[in-house]
Amino acid sequence: ELPSYSDLLARTDAPPGSSWGLFGDDDDLGTLNFLTPERRIRAASLVSSGQAYSLDLPLDAFRQPLISHRGALQHTVFGLNEFHRDDKIDNLFPQATSQIDGLRHFGHPDYGFYNGADPERLIAGDPTLGIHRYAEHGVAGRGVLLDVGRYLEHSGDPIDYTQARSIPARVLDETARHQGVNIEPGDILLLRFGWLGHRMNQMRQDAQTGKDTLSDTPLVSVGLEQSHDTAEWFWDHRVALAAADNVALEVWPATASGLSVRADTQGALPPSSHTGMLHRILIPLLGLAIGELWQLDELAEACHADRRYECMLVATPLRLPGGVGSPSNAVAIR
Ligand code: UVW
């Protein structure tokens, strides 16, 4: 029996709030260990209509990069002769569109990388904590969609996509209750806020009108509250992987700092910088990889139509040894 999140916070044998060692001293899968063969059998039993939904944006979706250093890819198609084509991709930032951020992506400022991995080894050519391990294990299991955007709209409290709204864990419980769905150990959680659909609509409108309403506006997004309650919700539900249709899963910009795991800072967090973001609790301490910019609107429509919010979810991150992140290549089958 694995400890609860409050037990993790009380650890003295490893960083407080961490799962380090619980899956083995050399583990490099973190919470993906919750996704077992039994869970895959359960997931396969959920397919009834056989309809498949791609959860990825097109790889070239952002000609204007969403995160400035992750520029647009260059795709070249060339002919070896008149009837033989090859192609190549340059400037591919695996985290530029729909992605999975693996366990290399973030370390904790006080404790370092997941399971105490040596930061010197987190380089190209070394497999430590690489995203290829996710490909090898198989990200295939029960996906559960929580349509937070639709739930809040239904509750008369719709999301304003121009604001960095922080969503507490209790809203996840409310949404699940409203939808009549339970989170089971080993689930892949799909959180729809509606942010990405809104953004893509704005981009389409700009393309039609020739205006650029986005480049000069700072990136803001609704997302999960940066708090221990959020981490507790994930850990105590034994979520294997959490993905959302926003930029960072958590609210953006990251406003909290020093999301410390000391007991005296549980709950609300002091204001400040990037270094406190929830990423630094979920990825390096819990070993929970994060999916971002997943396109969930079409799936959500289908789920809403027949009130079935679970699916077989298959994502195939690149088997890139030592990769930090990867295009998600995710499909939901229901
Ligand atoms: C942000 O920090 C906005 O995203 P990522 O997790 O992809 O770095």
Task: Give your account of this protein's structure.
The chain has helices spanning 5-9, 37-44, 132-137, 148-154, 169-179, 195-209, 228-236, 279-286, 297-306, and strands at 52-54, 74-81, 84-90, 99-101, 139-147, 166-167, 188-192, 223-224, 241-244, 290-292, 310-315, 325-327, 330-333. By secondary structure, it is of the alpha/beta class. It has one domain (5-57, 98-333): Glucose Oxidase, domain 1 (3-Layer(bba) Sandwich). The strands form 3 sheets. The chain has a 9-stranded mixed β-sheet, with helices on both faces. A hairpin with a 2-residue loop joins β2 (74-81) and β3. The longest helix has 15 residues, at 195-209. The radius of gyration is 20 Å and the shape is globular. Bound molecules: acetylphosphate. Acetylphosphate (UVW) binds next to loops.
Rg over CA atoms: 20 Å
How many separate structural domains?
A: 1
* SS field, number of helical segments: 9
| Known CATH architecture | 3-Layer(bba) Sandwich
Overall mean confidence score, pLDDT: 92
Q: Order of helices and strands, N to C? A: HHEEEEHEHEHEHEHEHEHEEE
| Quaternary structure type | single chain
Ligands in the model, by name, code or SMILES, are: acetylphosphate
The helical percent reads 10-25%
Structural class: alpha/beta
CATH class: Alpha Beta
Q: How many DSSP E strands?
A: 13
CATH topology type: Glucose Oxidase, domain 1
Major β-sheet annotation: 9 strands, mixed
